[in-house]
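Weekly structure sync, notes
Attendees: PL, DS, HV (note-taker this week)

Item 1: HTH arsR-type domain-containing protein
DS walked through the input record. Source organism listed as Sulfoacidibacillus ferrooxidans. Sequence as pasted into the shared doc:
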Amino acid sequence: MRVIDVTVDIDAAFKALADPIRRSLLEALTKTEFYCHIDGEEVNGICVQDLSDMLELPQSTVSRHLAILRHAGLVGHLQKGVWHYYFCHTNVVRDIQAWLVSLMKQTAQ
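Item 1 (cont.): predicted structure, written out as tokens:
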């Protein structure tokens, strides 16, 4: 059996992805058309307020789920003044996908 070296914490990522609210948040964060603008300049992320409005959830709930996604490495964070913006770490999602593809190849052999 071959061991695959993954830099991503697969356990934390799958635990984070096990919740439908976190999956919805991650999906929203992949859509750059929802990225916020400050004085006409695009910020590479979506603020908690906008995510809360999108998912029709309280900001405290969204913030709690974003913290779990951040801990798993799936989401990044940027602060500008008092505003917090979140974005998807697409490279981490790709690493997880590559691990799953590799696993599938191993089971097909």
